[in-house]
């Protein structure tokens, strides 16, 4: 075969068609990439637009713990004798702040304190107002923590903030409390996801 090669018209036509096919494939690739980018941007915009900030924010301003050994009086509510009980208890007092940042009222319907121990999470609902007040009568050494009570059930208007103290009680030893792996507070909101808050300051022992 000669080093000089003359292409026939048929060969020229085939080469031209191949070049056109290659160009067409390239255009399809770029069009596909553009379509993927457009669809991805549309999906991202949809989810970003659909994301809403939580209806409420909050803060655990401070937490105090009061470990104690309890011995019951040996009398029931009617003054009748009953077996005296001995057990360890930790009272947890927290200053809580709750803010409604939505455009409609929200309703708080319970608050719990959650302590994570080696065997799992132990939860205790915050005391009612009567229980809260009685704690400071029974334990006068806690009088300096007798701040404004935060109701465990209340409604907040848009932009309103509520702040006050709560008390929860746990049957556990001081050693168990000191060995805890976590501490948080769950604020239950009616018809809304619960708000879970963790303290950002050290717990003060009383």
Structural notes for this entry:
This protein has 206 residues and is an alpha+beta fold. It folds into two domains: 1-51; 56-205, Sandwich (Immunoglobulin-like). The protein contains three helices and nine strands. The strands form two sheets. Strands 3, 4, 5, 7 and 8 form a five-stranded antiparallel beta sheet that branches. The radius of gyration is 34 Å and the shape is globular.
Q: Helix/strand-derived class?
A: alpha+beta
According to DSSP, the number of beta strands is 9
Query: How many structural domains does the protein architecture include?
Result: 2
Shape: globular
Instruction: Show unreliable segments.
Output: 1-8, 35-50
Q: Element order, helices and strands?
A: HEEEEHEEHEEE
Radius of gyration: 34 Å
What is the number of helices? Answer: 3
Average pLDDT figure: 81
The percent range for strand residues is 35-45%
* CATH architecture field of the largest domain: Sandwich
Largest pleated sheet: 5 strands, antiparallel
CATH topology of the largest domain: Immunoglobulin-like
Q: Indicate the CATH class of the largest domain.
A: Mainly Beta
Distance between the termini: 103 Å
Helix fraction by DSSP (H/I, runs of at least 4): 25-40%
């Amino acid at each position: 075969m000669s080093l000089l090669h003359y292409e026939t018209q048929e060969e020229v036509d085939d080469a031209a068609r191949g070049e056109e096919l290659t160009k067409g494939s390239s255009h399809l690739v770029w069009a596909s990439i553009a379509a993927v980018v457009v669809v991805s941007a549309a999906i991202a915009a949809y989810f970003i637009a659909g994301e809403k900030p939580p209806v409420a924010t909050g803060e655990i301003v401070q937490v105090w713990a009061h470990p104690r050994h309890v011995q019951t009086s040996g009398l029931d509510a009617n003054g009748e004798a009953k077996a005296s009980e001995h057990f360890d208890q930790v009272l947890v007092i927290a200053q809580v702040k709750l803010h409604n940042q939505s455009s409609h009222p929200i309703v708080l319907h319970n608050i719990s304190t959650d302590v994570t121990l080696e065997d799992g999470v132990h939860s205790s609902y915050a005391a009612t107002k009567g229980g809260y007040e009685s704690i400071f009568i029974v334990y006068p050494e806690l009088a300096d923590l007798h701040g404004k009570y935060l109701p465990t059930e209340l409604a907040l208007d848009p932009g309103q903030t509520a702040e006050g103290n709560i008390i929860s009680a746990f049957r556990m030893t001081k050693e168990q409390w000191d060995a805890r792996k976590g501490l948080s507070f769950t604020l239950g909101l009616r018809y809304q996801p619960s708000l879970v808050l963790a303290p950002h300051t050290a717990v003060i022992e009383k």
